[in-house]
Amino acid sequence: MNVKSLPLLALLLASACAGLSGCGKKTPASVPQDIRPVRAEQMGAHEVSSVNSYSGEVRARFQTDLAFRVGGKITARQVEVGTQVKAGQLIATIDPQDYALAASAANSQLAAARAEALLAQQDLKRYTELRAQNFISQAELDRRRTSADSAAAKVRQVGADATRQGNQREYTRLNAPHAGVITRVNAEPGQVVAAGQAVAQVARTGEMEAAINVPENELDRVRLAKSLNIRLWSAQGKNYAGKLRELSPVADAATRTYSARISFQKPDDDVKLGMTATVDVASSAVENLSVAQAALFEINGHPQVWVIDPKTGQVAARAVQLGSLIGERAAIISGLRVGEWVVTAGVHKISPGQRVRLTKSAQPS
């Protein structure tokens, strides 16, 4: 071996020995794990309540479409949208000429039938006397009695038709069935309408209600609501007690929501038809396990929380099953027990097995 290479060899051996743990030197002690201060809460039963709001409009409980019972040409309309009407007040008329002629013809037929019935009755009287004197046969008398009965029946028939024609003439006048306000007008003078075609709509004065639409997942909440409160956009600061009067059993085909009617318990003069209304639905308070939503994070799409081991101070991720989200809290169906501590802040900066300590605000009293 070349003598000049000895220093270089010694240097290489010394460097290799320094890189090995077994070369006579002790390794430094491992750095102690950092203990992170965290905010946490202890699981317990919390009183949970919430208020959902639904927009709608003020309507009358009874809204009636008004229509003529006969067809014809409208000659006059006496009301406009917003007109206050009384029971029996004239709304519109159609041309009564044809119906007047039909009623006159029916009355003339009735007069002729009565004359024939009178003649048949007089003949029956005379033939009865002749039969008593045995001048005619019983068969002849029976024929006269049948003729008289037939004439009387025809009087009743023609009389009924005359009454019907008279009613048809009266139906050319459309009157309000009850007091209310006109909310819609569908026809104008000069227009020809069919029997039953809506000409106007009247909303009955009296009971008022708010019409709202409820999604299918909130039906039970509305049906079992602790209280219903109605607010009007035009009357800020005023609240009206409401009561569920009607909840449709069938969803609307277009919106897939269920219509509901909330009656005003004590409406005042500020409540007007067509106003924008908001119905607040307060659910009943429930004792339930819940956790702050800030404590939740996901692993593979499943909600998790960090649970603190009270003995070691280490955290471990635990899957939970969530219920409804109410405000800033989430109801817990399963996964946690009363008394356990859960980290509520900085959950994304913690790793499994991390040792933590509670801040003073989170310390148990």
The N- to C-terminal Cα distance equals 79 Å
Q: What class would the helix/strand composition place it in?
A: alpha+beta
Biggest beta sheet attributes: 6 strands, antiparallel, barrel
Mean pLDDT: 85
Strand order of the largest sheet: 4-13-16-15-14-17
**Whole-number radius of gyration?**
46 Å
**N-to-C SSE string, H for helix and E for strand:** HEEEEEEEEHHEEEEEHEEEEEEEEEEEE
- State the share of residues found in helices, binned by percent: 10-25%
Query: Overall 3D geometry?
Result: elongated
List keywords for this structure.
365 residues, single chain, 25 strands, alpha+beta, 6-stranded antiparallel barrel, 4 helices, disordered N terminus
What would you say this structure looks like, in words?
The protein is of the alpha+beta class and 365 residues long. Helices cover 24% and strands 37% of the residues. The protein has four helices and 25 strands. Strands 4-13-16-15-14-17 form a six-stranded antiparallel β-barrel. Strands 2, 19, 20, 21 and 24 form a five-stranded antiparallel beta sheet that branches. A hairpin with a 6-residue loop joins β20 (302-308) and β21. The longest helix has 36 residues, at 97-132. It is elongated. The two termini are 79 Å apart. Residues 1-32 have low confidence and may be disordered.
